[in-house]
Specification:
It is found in: Cell membrane. By secondary structure, the protein is an all-alpha fold. It contains 26 helices and no strands. Helix 21 runs antiparallel to helix 24. The N terminus and C terminus are likely disordered.
Length: 655
């Protein structure tokens, strides 16, 4: 039977680029965005000057663009930092705007600082981006004819309003986001155990890993040692920690191709409802009569442990000066940060020069596009540039239609609300969708604050296209190493995490510390695999060898995940009438994983390694042999990328 020719199908990078994430609509974020951006316009229009409302709503944009789900303390730090950075950048742009001798070096300097501080973490990265965006945006505000202090006052008013909207329900909802995160773990457990198809259960396991990571991140970020809500946070964190054995046993059952009784799935659903409502947990279902197999016994024991809770040690806060030293150390030892900063600074400088040399109205949009697209830690530069261009063209069409229909007054307020909601949806679905809604919103805001609406539409289109061209040519095509595959290090790190998990999971945990170490090793392995999958999903949108080889290496990721699941299946049976594997067999497994990691890092074929022949670990050995076969396939140093894709695409489809 013939197989379809890969070169006749749609390019893999295009399919991945245009794919929308299948996540629920974040209605709470949509509502906050609508209120934050549309209410100032409505009030100002009712007062007789909608242009003032447009200037105020501009100040609300940093919080809307930086919005993220999570605990209130986390969101307060994220949104507060982004708003403060945007305010500082906006002031710098206002003070230097209209004078190129001052504005150009200011924007370039802010771009460099924005890229460097991104190494401090995701919140710092978002703050740096907002600082750059609103610095550039402010350099064009002199065209309004409004005094600097008045513009800055309107911006601060909008910023304060958006923060109030984002955090207004903190006092009444308290730990609601954390409860939702923990409850979601039980929902995903029920979904995974309910799946009857292997492919569906594999996707459900990925979603369970994401839910666990999210819940731990939110609870640990909530700083449970603080007074006031310490007991509530600690209760949820202990509950999540106590759920780990049930998670391990559930993964083991799915990996073995078995499903528990309906009462177990119903119990997880009931646990989710109880956590959301803050009610006592329901009692676990009774153990089935007879002598259940070790995996099923481990699952029921895990259900009992959830009800008993877990004694988890309180994490001590990290002093701010230690975090500052760690960030400074990462800068000193991180050449990739400085390379990314240099690339962003160079492209921003080029955009500023183009804006000075080419007679374009409101040419600061060129620099704005470069700064948004070329953020070093937000995914594929190529993908963001293409999606930004596509989204802008669509957005300009929407904006032109609005202006062409002569919309004004309350119609503009309603349309602004629609665009604001679209931004919130686009943030979680697809970057192109977000750009398609951001564009008409900015067009309306600038059109209300400036004169010449049609010129705003045309300038937005031309300047965005020029900015995307600068990024694609100088930040991607001509930038050294931007199209060269960089997958070995991440793959090897994932293999190291799995090897560490093997060394902890396949021995008997006779103490609480040993069980805690095993739990952390399991979370570390699955988190590393989840991060690896995310990184490769970002890479496959590249049309270069980087993207094609990411597709070719995908079977290795699938093999790593199956090895981890097989280890979990063996680990949950230890101590339940089943002795641990021979230590020599465990050493053979970790040595084999170490050889795989070394082969990937050195871009060579792995050497044949002795593997255990014990029946107890036969499932792990089978999956490990598949991992060896997958690593022996792609050769990054010598083989043609297209040939790799053709060779491994059928396997990729099966996995």
């Amino acid at each position: 039977m013939s197989t379809p020719r890969p070169d006749l199908a749609a390019p893999h990078w295009l399919v991945q680029l245009l794919r929308s994430s299948p996540v629920p609509v974040p209605w709470n974020m949509v509502a906050r965005a609508v209120v934050a951006l549309a209410v100032p316009l409505a009030i100002a229009y009712a007062a007789g000057d909608i242009a003032v409302g447009a200037l105020i709503s501009t100040g609300a944009l940093p919080a809307v663009l930086s919005e993220s789900a999570g605990p209130y303390r986390y969101r307060a730090r994220r949104l507060g930092g982004a708003t403060l950075a945007a305010t500082a950048g906006y002031l710098a742009g206002l003070l230097t705007g209209g004078t190129p001798a001052l504005s150009v070096p200011t924007v370039v300097l802010v771009a460099a600082v924005s890229a460097v501080i991104s190494a401090a973490g995701s919140n710092a990265s978002v703050a740096g981006l907002q600082m750059l965006v609103f610095c550039v945006l402010a350099t064009g505000q002199h065209a309004t004819g409004v005094r600097v202090e008045v513009l800055f006052g309107y911006f601060c008013l909008g910023a304060a309003w958006s923060l109030l909207v984002a955090l207004a329900t903190w006092t009444v909802r308290a730990t609601s986001p954390e409860r939702t995160a923990v409850a979601h773990v039980y929902v995903e457990l029920a979904a995974m155990l309910s799946a009857t198809d292997e492919a569906v259960s594999r996707v459900a396991r990925h979603r369970l890993t994401t839910a666990m990571n999210t819940a731990y991140d939110q609870l640990l970020t909530a700083r449970s040692w603080l007074s006031g809500r310490d007991a509530a946070y600690r209760h949820l964190l202990n509950l999540l920690s106590a759920t780990t054995p049930a998670v391990e046993a559930s993964v083991a059952m799915v990996n073995a191709g078995r499903r528990p009784g309906r009462e177990v799935i119903d119990h997880f659903v009931a646990l989710s409802a109880a956590v959301l409502a803050g009610q006592p947990l329901p009692p676990p279902p009774p153990v089935p009569p007879g002598d259940p197999d070790p995996v099923l016994a481990a699952l029921y024991a895990g259900l009992v442990r959830i009800g008993k809770g877990d004694d988890r040690k309180r994490r001590e806060p990290t002093p701010w000066h230690r975090r500052l030293r760690e960030w400074a150390g990462s800068l000193a030892s991180g050449p990739l940060t400085w390379i990314a900063a240099l690339r962003l600074t160079l492209c921003v400088a080029l955009a500023e020069v183009v804006g000075l040399l080419v007679p374009l109205e409101r040419s600061y949009w060129i620099t704005l596009t470069v700064g948004i697209v070329l953020k070093p830690d937000f995914g594929s530069v190529f993908g963001r540039a293409v999606l930004r261009g596509i989204g802008t063209v669509i957005g300009v069409g929407i904006g032109a239609a609005v202006l062409g229909l002569g919309a004004n007054g309350w119609v503009l307020v309603v349309l602004s609300a629609v665009f604001a909601g679209g931004i919130a949806v686009g943030k979680v679905r697809n970057y192109g969708i977000q750009s398609a809604f951001v564009t008409p919103l900015i067009i309306l805001q600038m059109g209300l604050a400036h004169t010449g609406n049609w010129s705003v539409v045309l300038a937005r289109l031309v300047d965005t296209v020029l900015g995307c061209v600068i990024v694609l040519v100088f930040g991607y095509l001509l930038w050294p190493g931007s199209r060269r595959p960089r997958v070995g290090g991440r793959l090897a790190d994932g293999l190291d995490a799995v090897a560490k998990y093997v060394s902890h999971a396949l021995v008997e945990a006779s103490s609480g510390e040993a069980r805690l170490a095993r739990s952390r090793a399991r979370r570390g392995a699955y988190r590393a695999l989840a991060d690896l999958r995310t990184a490769f999903q970002q890479a496959v949108v590249e049309p270069s060898a980087h993207g094609r080889q990411a597709v070719a290496w995908w079977p290795v990721i699938a093999a790593q995940e199956r090895v981890a699941d097989a280890v979990t299946e063996v680990g949950v049976t230890i101590g339940r009438g089943v002795p641990p594997p021979d230590p020599a067999d465990v050493e053979l497994l970790t040595a084999a994983l170490g050889e795989l990691a070394a082969a990937v890092r050195e871009q060579r074929e792995p050497r044949s390694m002795p593997l255990p022949d014990a029946e107890q670990v036969s499932g792990v050995v089978d999956q490990l042999e598949s991992a060896f076969d997958a690593v022996r396939g792609p050769d990054l140093a010598e083989r043609a990328p297209l040939g790799l894709v053709r060779r491994f695409l059928p396997y990729h489809r099966r996995t």
